[in-house]
Amino acid sequence: MKQFLLVLCALAVILTGCSVKQDMKVKTVEQTDNNMEPTITNTEPTETVSEDNTATDEGVNMNVADLSEFKDQTQKGVALMKGMPMEKLYVFKGSSFTSDAEKVLVASLQGLVSKSSGNKIYIDEGGPSTVWKNYLTSEYGFPVEKEYTNAKALLADFKDYVRGYILIDMAGNANSINVASSINGYNYAIIVDKSMETLAKDAGLSMIMDVSDKDEAWAFDNVKQYSSSDYAAELSPSVFYHLRDYISMTNQFTFYGDINNWRRNVLKSLNPNATLFGYGKEEFDMINMASQQGVTSIPSDMAPNLSVLSSIYPVTPILQKAHSEKKEVEKKHYVTFVISDGDNVAFDLWTLQNYFNDPARGKFDVGYGISPSIYDLAPSVLQWYYENANTGEVKDQFIAGPSGTGYTFPSKMSSEELDSYVARQNEYMEKADLGITEVLDQGAVNDMPVWSKFLNQPNIDAIFYFGYGETTQGEINWQGDKPVIAQSNVLWEGLTEEDELIKFLNDAKVDPTSNEGYSLILVHCWTKSLSDVATVVNGLNDNVEVVAPEEFVQLIKDNVKH
Question: How far is CA 488 from the centre of its chain?
Fold first, then answer.
């Protein structure tokens, strides 16, 4: 990530060139013997600051002198930023939130603390969120030091990580939330709604800036330079704490709105191969535009606690236990089922874990898409899935969700941008022990110059192609001995129901030497469950066999002429 100067001159001076030295104190955390509350120790600064310490612009007055007391200790993983390595775990009970304003405040504080401390504030929402919290304790040895049920107590313990607050007006100007999210990380300032300003003042904090009447266009014109050029976030103002902690930690410019030229300009302002977190309004248009700009999207608008979960640092690849052994071919039609939406980190943190609780799991082989970027963003979650996957005759097997590192239409990217993208994905595939990648694109199933870039990477063994709004027929194309296998059908409410898919598969050709002898089926995660898949499996003829994704690819490689 682009490293920002922690002290800025006035903007007019910056344009003419100014001399700035970085001066930072490293914040460390100690535990007192007689209580569980964190205390702060500051190491001595090693350098001094020169030049004026105030940044100004029309409507902007950010006095940044006190930034010398803070140090951004985030680190880059394979491609994404990670919180300072975890040392202690503190929990805020999500069920105790009393207002949306409190959610915003806590999330902004959560990100700032993770940015410069081994202390972590984890929001426990229940369900899968509790599973991940408990796994941090059982597998990684981080017990919960203290639980909180209100922002006042939390802020009292962690206010020393905060320089002040940025004021917003959620009732009168919802967009002010995103304006504040764009600059609060740089300023080490929590985001405080007018309804909670008294709480911040009572904690001894001063207002850094009032953006209660500002919108995202103003932020882009006036304060975009204080945010990252490698990462940005597209997030609805109605999302109050999901993802906002990670935005706070990583200084992401935050916006939301129509797919228009202004949005294109935001994307153009980012560095090559930048990453866009969150989620926009119109799926196809937002991904198409981002792809054209060489920006990779990671759907994550409802992902909680990424500033905390990213603070685990695996030193080796995280390995699956459910790899397939070589399968001998029979005269059958072979089918593999893949659960959709693995590119969505919020899905990986929530709905996917619920799939593991489905009573039908373990009765047939199934493939799950998962985002390779979770190796950076939530490696403990990835390890949990691998540890809890079925590994015997019936397998839960993971493949990279579309389109690999993130959601993009590869055929819309420039050749140079795609080269960088697949090189990055190749590293993720090794780290996350994934061999097959899904891609989601449109009208590109036969575009082998694009897919060869993927398949030329040593860690990518095959592509499962899913067409956006298009019907594919199970086509198989080849790059050497590596196949691009197109979707044959779906299990998706309103498109193909269980009885229709049963008939489709039972009527399919039984010939493992031909393309038609294999069916790749996408299961729509939002309308169909594993129990629905079980209905299909139970209705299949004896000459139709369900196999795991790796077996499916191996059978095609070994038996289909190419």
Answer: 28
> Are 366 and 501 in a shared domain?
yes
Q: What is the 3 state secondary structure string of 376-422? A: HHCHHHHHHHHHHCCECCCEEEEEECCCCCCECCHHHCCHHHHHHHH
DSSP assigned state of 357: T
**pLDDT, average across residues 60-64:** 55
Strands 476-479 and 482-486: antiparallel
Nearest to 457 by CA among 414, 397, 409, 405: 405
Last residue of a domain, one of 276, 309, 342: 309
Tell whether the model's pLDDT for residue 27 goes beyond 90: no
Q: What angle do CA 514, 520, 521 make, to 5 degrees?
A: 145
| Strand bridging mode 544-546 / 296-299 | unpaired
Cα three-residue angle 373-379-383, rounded to 5 degrees: 120
Worst-scoring range by mean pLDDT, 41-55, 130-144, 511-525?
41-55
**Partners of 391 in beta bridges:** 395
| In the predicted structure, residue 469 carries a pLDDT above the cut 80 | yes
Considering only residues 283 and 34, tell me which one the structure prediction assigns the higher pLDDT: 283
* Same structural domain, 92 and 182: yes
Residue 291 sits at the vertex; the CA angle it makes with 287 and 292, to the nearest 5 degrees, is 120
- Give the structural domain span for 341: 333-559
Classify residue 408: in a domain, yes or no. yes
Give start and end residues of each alpha helix (H) in 256-357: 261-268, 283-292, 306-309, 345-349, 351-355
513 Cβ contact partners less than 8 Å away, ≥ 6 residues apart: 559, 560, 561
d(Cα 206, Cα 163) in Å, to the nearest integer? 8
For residues 284 and 340, membership in a common domain is answered with: no
Predicted pLDDT at 70? 80
The stretch 130-136 carries a mean pLDDT of 98
Asked whether the beta carbons of 434 and 382 are under 8 A apart, the reply is no
Overall average pLDDT of the 92-110 stretch: 98
**Residues 271 and 360 both lie in one domain:** no
pLDDT of residue 478: 98
Residue 157 confidence (pLDDT) above 60: yes
DSSP of 102-168: HHHHHHHHHHHHHHH-SEEEEEE-STHHHHHHHHHHHTT---EEEEESSHHHHHHHHGGG--EEEEE
pLDDT tops 50 at residue 308: yes
Count the alpha carbons within 13 Å of 416 in the hemisphere toward its beta carbon: 3
As a whole number, mean pLDDT of residues 36-54 equals: 30
Average pLDDT, the chain: 89
What distance in Å separates the CA atoms of residue 20 and residue 417, rounded to the nearest whole number? 34
pLDDT band at 324 (very low <50, low <70, confident <90, very high): confident
* Lookup result for tokens 């047939």: 364
Whether the pLDDT of residue 58 is over 60: the answer is no
Q: State how far the Cα of 45 lies from the Cα of 41, in Å rounded to an integer.
A: 12
* Cβ proximity of 539 and 502 under 8 Å: yes
Find the CATH number of the domain harbouring 406: 3.20.20.490
